[in-house]
Amino acid sequence: MNTQSAIMIKLPETFTGKEARNLGRQLRNKMTMESPSILVDLSRVRQIDLAGLEGLLDCMEMVAKHDGTLQLRKISPEAAMLLELTQMDRLFQKFPAFDAANFAPEEELATESKQIIGEKIIQPQPVAA
Fold this sequence. Notes:
Blueprint: E1 4-10, E2 14-15, H1 17-30, E3 37-41, E4 47-48, H2 50-65, E5 69-73, H3 77-85, H4 88-92, E6 103-110, E7 115-117, E8 120-122
Parallel strand pairs: 1-3, 1-6, 2-4, 3-5
Antiparallel strand pairs: 7-8
Helix pairs in contact: 1-2
């Protein structure tokens, strides 16, 4: 079985400008090959702000410039609704489809903000308004 490598991106529950900038930096560092295959997992996404949407568009543009493929998968209902309302779902459908089952994740990019104190990892917690 011929298995190709892909970069898998699991987006956090809240995808804002900070996470989008982090994602852009990591992708620029990891996309060293021509025609990269990028899988974006949206299963945990519950909220995306305007900067997060722009980050997804930047990711799409970066992959297109490298003649790569990008596929959204496991889209949460909240993310699906927002992508449909903004018609971004149509933009992402323009990429050629590939069979994600034939791809071994080369690397998973972490997009969540984490702070390390001592040996404990502190993750930001949602705050009720």
